[in-house]
Design a protein that fits this description.
Blueprint (H helix, E strand, L loop, with lengths): L10 E7 L3 H12 L4 E5 L13 E3 L1 H7 L6 H4 L7 E11 L6 E10 L1 H15 L2 E4 L3 E5 L2 E4 L4 E9 L6 H6 L6 E9 L7 E4 L8 E6 L4 E6 L10 H9 L6 E10 L8 E2 L2 E3 L15 H21 L5 H27 L4 H7 L5 H8 L9
Parallel strand pairs: 1-2, 1-9, 2-6, 4-11, 9-16
Antiparallel strand pairs: 3-5, 4-5, 7-8, 8-9, 10-13, 10-14, 11-12, 12-13, 15-16
């Protein structure tokens, strides 16, 4: 990866702010289309520090979850050294601890290595990177860096999360952001992914995601349901239930309102978390951001080569992900009602009669087949 001080041109076809899964995937498909693209990221290296639970569906599972997304195997090329382990079961655990168990083919990532691999894939296609450099403002076609340098591009893409400088400058739309805190813990853990609901994580959920060694353990909440208690309180209370040495602590937040109303304004484009590309009912964001990144990269490339509207990006997103996102938003709203109830009532909602509906909500399917 280029050093931040390496001299690069000041003018580009496309500049992408943020080199995470959304930004690097956008860059990969732009470069594949022959576009001169630069990715700018304040981190060095990209991918560090870790900010998530590291669970993604297998490619086979993705084809079931998002059937309208084409060429899944081309998009998701996770190298073996970015995979910590695979899992075949997910357990949804109410306060009673009487878990509902479901078959789920998942991949537990080494997230830092995963993001590095996405950078490498984009670079192989011809994308350029500038790391350890922060963008402080965007003015029309110009990007201003913290060190005072000014770069310009025909198209500027915001892929820097929900606080992305491009979004905060040109979009006024607000999103619900759920704060999360987690740790990596050594020790022995069950083979299944566990999602815990109830008063341990009001309005959200806690998780235990087993890795090759140890587990990723964390909590996400909606503060308005927390009755004045902090995220730190819920996180420490949940983590204390497990035995092992903590080797890393991290934090982040997830935009949980669903996608914003428009991804495009003039020559500005948003992708990934900055566009709200997180499924509200389960918090999935890595693979969803990559789906958006591929569409954005392909459409911008076509826009520059033959003049199609950038709004084609939104049309293709809705065709591939519109129904899944709508179902997820609906489930999140229903879950928001249920998950503010007392634990004893949540226990009643997790049983062999409701398991079909609970699983459909988590996996972004229509709750009722006739709707």
């Amino acid at each position: 990866m280029p050093d931040a001080k390496v001299e690069l041109p000041s003018t580009w076809d496309v500049i992408i702010i943020g080199g995470g899964p959304a930004g690097s995937t956008t860059a990969r498909y732009l470069a594949e289309g022959g576009v001169n693209v630069l990715v700018i990221d304040g981190r060095d290296p990209i991918g560090s520090p870790l900010q998530c639970g590291e669970l993604v569906p297998s490619n086979a599972e993705m084809k079931r979850l998002c059937p309208a997304v084409p060429d899944v195997d081309d998009l998701f090329q996770t190298p073996d050294d970015a995979i910590s382990r695979t899992i075949e079961e997910m357990q949804l655990v109410p306060p009673s601890k009487k878990a509902l168990k479901f078959r789920f083919e998942g991949i537990i990532l080494n997230r830092v290595r995963h993001d590095e691999a996405l950078v490498e894939l984009a670079q192989q296609k011809g994308a350029q990177y500038m790391v350890g450099t922060r963008v402080v403002s965007v003015n029309g076609n110009e990007v201003v860096l913290k060190d005072g340098r000014v770069l310009s591009a025909k198209i500027i893409v915001g892929a820097g999360g929900h606080n992305d400088v491009l979004r905060t400058t040109y979009w006024q739309e607000k999103s619900l952001n759920i704060p999360v805190k987690f740790c990596l813990m050594d020790g022995e853990f069950p083979d299944a992914v566990e999602l815990h609901f109830g008063s341990c994580a009001p309005g959200g959920y806690a998780w235990v995601i087993p890795k090759k060694e140890g587990a990723n353990i964390g909590v996400g909440i909606q503060r308005k349901f927390a009755k004045g208690r902090s995220l730190n309180h819920f996180t420490e209370e949940f983590i204390e239930k497990y035995q092992g040495d903590i080797t890393f602590r991290g934090a982040g937040s997830l935009p949980m309102s669903g996608t914003i109303s428009s991804f495009v304004k003039d020559n500005h484009v948003l992708v990934g978390d900055s566009a709200g590309m997180v499924l509200p009912s389960n918090g999935a964001g890595i693979t969803i951001a990559m789906i958006g990144g591929r569409i954005a990269g392909q459409v911008i490339s076509e826009h520059l080569s033959n003049g199609i509207s950038l709004h084609e990006y939104e049309k293709r997103w809705k065709k591939q992900m519109g129904r899944v996102m709508k179902n997820s938003q609906r489930s999140f709203k229903l879950g928001g009602i249920m998950l503010r109830l007392p634990d004893w009532m949540i226990n009643l909602g997790f049983n062999r009669f409701t398991r079909f509906f609970v699983w459909r909500a988590i996996t972004c399917k229509r709750m009722l087949l006739i709707i």
